[in-house]
Amino acid sequence: MSNDAQPPVADDRYTELQNSAEFVELRRRFRRFVFPMTAFFLIWYFLYVLLSVYAKEFMGSKFVGNITWGLVLGLLQFVTTFAITMYYARWADREFDTRAEALAQKMGGAL
């Protein structure tokens, strides 16, 4: 048996994977989801911070009873975080994970 018949080196497999059309499409789908979602959350977070610094009167004003707008918006930060996480998990299960698994199988199993 000659040395020419050896399986490709692991680095070659990774390079082949990165250059495949399927991987490029998978990466594009991931970025199309993650970048806008990250931008949305960062804008929402920094809006809260800026309101806390520059709109103290608004943030300290009563929403209902002794609950202020600052508290409501602060709690909505947590709600938003959990909602985005759940949305990402559902999206990944539906759109991303199955394609990634199929690509891994095509490339010869777990890389």
UniProtKB/TrEMBL annotation:
Residue ranges crossing the lipid bilayer per the database entry? 33-55, 67-89
Recorded hits in InterPro entries, A to Z, give:
DUF485
Q: Which keywords, in A-to-Z order, does the entry hold?
A: Membrane, Transmembrane, Transmembrane helix
Q: Which Pfam families match?
A: DUF485 (PF04341)
Descriptive protein name: Integral membrane protein
Q: Please give the organism.
A: Intrasporangium calvum (strain ATCC 23552 / DSM 43043 / JCM 3097 / NBRC 12989 / NCIMB 10167 / NRRL B-3866 / 7 KIP)
